[in-house]
Design goal:
Elements: H1 9-19, E1 22-25, H2 36-42, E2 47-51, E3 54-57, E4 64-67, E5 69-71, E6 76-81, E7 85-88, H3 91-94, E8 95-99, H4 101-116, E9 124-125, E10 132-139, E11 142-149, H5 155-167, E12 173-178, E13 191-195, H6 196-199, E14 200-202, E15 208-210, H7 212-229, H8 237-249, H9 257-271, H10 280-291
Parallel strand pairs: 11-12, 12-13
Antiparallel strand pairs: 1-8, 2-8, 3-4, 5-6, 6-7, 9-10, 10-11, 14-15
The structure holds zinc ion.
């Protein structure tokens, strides 16, 4: 159980993402419906999850930490205080809320689909890092991987994340949504960094929404570079990576490059029945590149 301080929902969201999966007391909701906690509950980013394990006794002269228990006789939650005896607690005063980074990533994926076209969910934690691959969307004409990253102040996690991003690079562009406001993210090849709290907001309908203009602006630099290098040559790499991401998201990835190659070919034919099938050597090359990202 950690203390939460932010007075705006996105600031609170950044704090929670940095702290990782946890349960918080719903009592942080001191300002009622207008509080950041209440906003995150309505947005589905904090979910009711039973009662807290401990709370502070306010029934005697001196505040002290107590274990919350259920009293079957009285049919209520409460705690035992040496001075006041059993103190019955209202359900709201001991309610707990669950937070998970995975749920934030799901909401981000929805928001990107709202802004840039629906994609099947392919989010996954990048193995050995604190970064999540949120998915891939076409932003400003570039196939763009979106990564949610935090924990750059941990040297080992930061190095591993950079290695992962390098391995993920064959796509046309990438954006790292960086949660640490205090830690500078060094760009990795095609990946630019944007601050999470600059592009993410909670809109009037309590939904996670994105500043699409700023995201397009951040990706535009890559499109300019690419067109200077090879004009008008479409790349099948991003499409093959998207096929592999989908297989992985469905848990259908086999061991070994050859099995993955076979599956990728089948999945390509299913997803793109009218598009030309890439050459075997091209599919194999991209399976190799993709596997370096942790599979
Ligand atoms: Zn007490």
């Amino acid at each position: 159980m950690t203390g939460v301080r932010s007075t705006d929902p996105v600031g609170l969201l950044c704090e929670l993402v940095l702290q990782g999966d946890q349960r918080i007391a719903a009592l942080n909701n001191v300002d009622g419906d207008a509080s950041p906690v209440a906003t995150l509950v309505r947005a589905g980013l904090l979910v009711p999850d039973g009662v807290v394990e401990t709370t502070i006794c306010d029934a005697c002269g001196e505040p002290h930490v107590v274990n919350v228990e259920f009293d079957p006789d009285r049919q209520t939650h409460g705690w035992r205080c040496p001075d006041a005896g059993f103190v019955a607690a209202s359900e709201e005063s001991v309610a707990a809320l669950a937070f998970s980074v995975g749920r934030v990533v799901e909401s981000l994926s929805e928001a990107f689909s709202d802004a840039f076209g629906r994609r099947p969910p392919t989010a996954r934690l990048l193995e050995g890092t604190t970064a999540w691959l949120v998915g891939m969307w076409t932003i400003g004409g570039s196939a763009t991987r979106i990564v949610l990253a935090c924990g750059f102040d941990d040297v080992r996690a930061a190095r591993r994340t950079r290695e992962m991003l390098l391995a993920l690079s064959p796509l046309e562009a990438g954006l790292v949504l960086s949660v640490d406001a205090d830690v500078e993210f060094e760009p990795v090849r095609e990946f630019a960094a944007v601050a999470f709290d600059e592009v993410v907001s909670i809109d009037g309908q309590d939904r996670v929404s994105l500043n699409a203009g700023l995201l397009q602006f951040a990706v535009a630099a890559f499109a300019a570079q690419r067109h200077a290098v090879h004009v008008g040559r479409p790349s099948v790499g991003p499409a093959i990576h998207a096929v592999l991401d989908q297989l992985a998201a469905r848990g259908e990835i086999e061991r070994g490059s050859e099995g993955i190659f076979r599956l990728a070919k089948q999945e390509w034919l299913r997803l793109h029945p009218t598009a030309p099938l890439p050459k075997d050597s091209t599919i194999r090359k991209h399976v190799r590149i993709w596997r370096r990202t942790g599979f």
